[in-house]
Design goal:
It is built from ten helices and ten strands. By secondary structure, the protein is α+β, with helices and mostly antiparallel strands. It has one domain: Thiol Ester Dehydrase, Chain A. Strands 1-3-4-5-2-7-10-9-8-6 form a ten-stranded antiparallel β-sheet. β9 and β10 form a beta hairpin. The longest helix is centred in the N-terminal third of the chain and has 14 residues. This is MaoC dehydratase-like protein.
Length: 440
């Protein structure tokens, strides 16, 4: 029988062997007209007007450019569009590394996502993708050994046009209490928690402030914000989200339910008898519920207060990938419908726990003219601003940091032209580059 350290070493070695090869994760379901051996990988997702609306609501977005097809048709874009990070439902931008039925003794969390978008997403679009793990770095800190896993993902539409790229970072934290498997014994739950938290109890004054902030939020819409009218140091209007709930959490999974296979390539199921049989067949998915004693509880560590300690968390906590998408609202509410978010990075610093409200703040840190060149050598100039993003909870604790690049209409250059010129297959941008302000 393996020791904890032996299992951890095996995970690191096997995950390193997978670097620079197409990821086997997030394949289309085994039932359907898909070539699951093809690269780029076909996606079962197709954008429809209703799916775009549901996606927008899943990140708290109510801009009619995304939710009202008629409004979109009247816009300069000529159709309803989806926010760029909807691409995560085509292919998750992080890679989980080596897999085996009993799992490995790590608690994994999405730690960051950087996006580069080249065009808008429209109804009727189908997709292919390619995801490749690129870097694996092992460090030891206050919480023990951490494995930082970096991936590169390309997203193409059904015409072969590249719509965007993502760079995802997963952190795998070693958990000694798990022994040599992915699931710790129920009697060891809460021996190790990364945080000490209870749900926040809001005072009357906090509720009044939060409601005023929510009621006061607006989007610029069709009013142009010209690049020449922006100044370095300008603050963006805050983006506020109400206290995080289980319903907020489940909307994320509902979007791509049935469109992806499990890690082992089998049909992904999440509820009732099929989920039970999945747990019996694959111990990595089964948790003994500490209250009921049922040994085949589903893998609901995000959503279930009693199961979240299996991930070393004291409360239900948000999906990092869901939070990584929300700052685009901060940028588009401020910049308006005539702007385009070209790059965005969100680095997760701590979870958003059940009942936490969040506030995203932005500040313009740079103005510049960006030159974009195609593979054929055509160059276009864009009026760009770099924005620093800070996410805070109701206690003013930082839960995420990041940056964005927003391309604006200009009195000198005119309105934007899409798609943004780019090489046929843009080079990999290493983690130390795409996480820094200079890339934006």
């Amino acid at each position: 029988m393996q020791t904890h350290e032996e299992a951890l070493t095996e995970f690191i070695d096997r995950s390193r062997d997978l670097l620079d090869a197409e990821s086997p994760e997030d394949l289309p379901p085994p039932t359907g007209p898909y070539d699951r051996t093809a690269v780029p990988v076909p996606s079962a997702l197709m954008l429809t007007s209703d799916l775009i609306r549901r996606y927008a609501h899943a990140i708290g977005e109510d801009n009619p450019l995304y939710t009202d097809p008629a409004h979109g048709e009247r816009s300069w874009l000529g159709s309803q569009i989806a926010p760029g990070p909807a691409l995560i439902h085509v292919r998750y931008p992080g890679d989980h590394g080596a897999q085996r039925p009993q799992g490995y003794p790590v608690a994994n969390f999405l730690s960051g996502v950087a996006w580069e978008f080249y065009d808008v997403l429209r109804p009727g679009t189908r997709f292919t993708s390619s995801k490749t793990p690129r870097e694996l770095v092992v460090t030891r800190g206050r919480q023990g050994k951490a494995i930082s896993h970096h991936s590169e993902t390309f997203y193409w539409d059904n015409t072969g046009a590249l719509l965007g790229k993502a760079y995802g970072r997963l952190i795998h934290m070693s958990v000694e209490q798990m022994g040599a498997t992915r699931v710790m014994p129920v009697e060891r739950l809460r021996e190790r928690l990364f945080y000490d938290r209870e749900p926040h109890r809001y005072s009357a004054a906090e509720i009044t402030r939060l409601r005023a902030a929510l009621d006061g939020q607006r989007w610029r819409g069709a009013e142009r914000l010209y690049w020449e009218d922006v100044r370095e140091g300008d603050a963006l209007p805050d983006l506020v989200q109400p206290p995080y709930s289980t319903r907020d959490e489940l909307t994320y999974q509902a979007i791509d339910h049935g469109l992806l296979s499990a890690f082992d390539g089998s049909r992904l199921v999440r509820a009732f008898g099929p989920a039970y049989r999945r747990g019996v067949a694959s111990p990595d998915f089964a948790r003994t519920h500490p209250v009921t004693g049922w040994p085949y509880s589903p893998w609901d560590e995000h959503e279930d207060r009693f199961l979240s300690p299996y991930r070393c968390e004291p409360l239900p906590f948000d999906f990092g990938i869901q939070r990584a998408q929300m700052p685009i609202r901060l940028l588009t509410n401020w910049a308006g419908d005539f702007a385009f978010v070209h790059r965005m990075y969100t680095s997760m610093r701590k979870p958003v726990f059940y009942g936490d409200a969040v506030c995203y703040r932005g500040r313009v840190i740079r103005k510049y003219v960006a030159e974009k060149t195609t593979a054929a050598g055509r160059t276009a100039r864009y009026a760009a601003v770099a924005v620093e993003i800070t996410g805070l909870n109701q206690r003013d604790e930082v839960h995420c940091l990041g940056y964005g690049t927003v391309l604006l209409p200009s009195k000198a250059f005119g309105d934007l032209t899409l798609p943004i010129p780019h090489p046929e297959r843009p080079d990999y941008v290493p983690f130390d580059v795409h996480r820094s302000a200079g890339w934006f």
